[in-house]
Design brief:
The protein has about 325 residues and is an alpha/beta fold. It has two domains: about 1-150, no CATH class; about 175-313, no CATH class. It contains 13 helices and eight strands. It has helices at about 25-30, 40-45, 75-95, 130-135, 150-175, 175-185, 190, 195-205, 215-230, 235-245, 255-270, 275-290, 290-295; strands at about 1-5, 35-40, 55, 65-70, 95-100, 110-115, 120-125, 140-145. A four-stranded parallel beta sheet has the order 2-1-5-8. Strands 4-3-6-7 form a four-stranded mixed beta sheet, with no helix packed on it. Helix 1 links the parallel strand 1 (about 1-5) and strand 2. The longest helix has 23 residues, at about 150-175. The structure holds iron/sulfur cluster (SF4). Iron/sulfur cluster binds near residues 15 and 104.
Length: about 325
């Protein structure tokens, strides 16, 4: 799975001051499961290392200029030519996600300071490269390294890149109606953990898909899938899903086992334990009672256990 990343986050000394911004989780942990596609727009557009620091300047947050801080050189044109070529190249990479360096006038996704001509910070927007990337690839999951320090955002983002990867693999290798139904069925509880209402909506879309409208429905499905994944999961939504899954074992569990499971879900609800605890028990029962439909649910194993993402949410 190829994931784009701001090169300085992998420890490459490409920043204006000749330094890096290594993120150990990304390089040493997530890096075991993805193929990084590192890039540094400032260096790759021809600027040296080290170089004069830059900032965004202008009144319109959609089109600020990229200016050097001290000598006021305008590097916007140089950066824009690089970006249009680079985005063509990235189109062919088949990226499943992108992780940007926060706050950079080039790579920052959001909240980057934009200055007035007089040098006062007045607005906030996206870095030049990040903005164009998101415009060109609106469905590719993106996040910035700063926000990824939040365990919930980190878990959501990594879940999203895995879903997107499976979706693109389905489009590239299968693209049948039965494949769409299978994809949808296997993501049912994962989508429910984001939005039960939107899950119903996309369910109707799948049911209305036939050979004639397949291409158009797949396009809509992808948009809706990304919208669902962009909605935050909450403890309450997860509890709802856990209770639905528990319903599969109504007949098999004895009263003690049921009570134990209910107590564990309740402890999670009160945020005394992480979600991994009820999930491990549910996975155990799914295996024990050979509930194939549940065993195929990506909700129960959305990303590698080694990343320990659900130990902290
Ligand atoms: S933030 Fe982006 S442009 Fe700046 S050094 Fe890192 S990769 Fe290069």
């Amino acid at each position: 799975m190829k994931i784009g990343i701001s090169s300085c986050l992998l420890g490459n000394k490409v920043r204006y001051d000749g330094q890096h911004k290594l993120d150990r989780f990304l390089r040493d942990e997530l890096g075991d499961f993805v193929d990084w596609v590192p890039l540094c727009p400032e260096m790759e557009c021809g600027l040296p290392v080290p170089r004069e620091a830059m900032r965004l300047v202008g009144d319109d947050p959609e089109s600020p200029r990229l200016m050097t801080n001290k000598t006021f050189q305008d590097k916007t044109g140089q950066m824009e030519s690089y970006i249009s070529e680079k985005l063509e190249e990235l189109e062919r990479e088949g990226l499943r996600g992108f992780i940007f360096k926060a706050k950079s006038p080039t790579s920052g996704m959001r909240g980057v300071k934009i200055y007035t001509e007089a040098g006062m910070p007045s607005r906030r927007g996206s870095g030049i490269f990040a903005r164009e990337f998101m415009k060109r690839f609106p469905n590719i999951p993106v996040e910035d390294e700063g926000r990824l320090h939040d365990p919930g955002i980190r878990e959501n983002f990594i879940e999203k890149i895995y879903v997107y990867d499976r979706w693109l693999n389905y489009l590239n290798e299968d693209k049948s109606i039965s494949g769409l139904m299978k994809f949808h069925a296997q993501h049912k509880y994962l989508m429910m953990s984001h939005s039960p209402a939107m899950l119903k909506e996309v369910g109707k879309l799948v049911a209305a898909t036939d050979k004639k409208n397949l291409d158009q429905k797949l396009k809509t499905y992808e948009e809706k899938l990304i919208n669902i994944l962009n909605l935050k999961t909450t403890v309450k939504k997860h509890v709802n899903v856990l209770q639905h899954i528990m319903g599969y074992f109504k007949k098999q569990l004895n009263p003690d086992e049921k009570q134990e499971l209910l107590d564990i879900i309740d402890k999670y609800h009160r945020e005394l334990i992480p979600i991994v605890v009820p999930l491990v028990l549910l996975q155990h029962y799914a295996r024990k009672y050979k509930e194939t439909y549940l065993l195929e649910q990506w909700y129960l194993h959305p990303h590698p256990d080694e990343l320990k993402l659900r130990n902290h949410v």
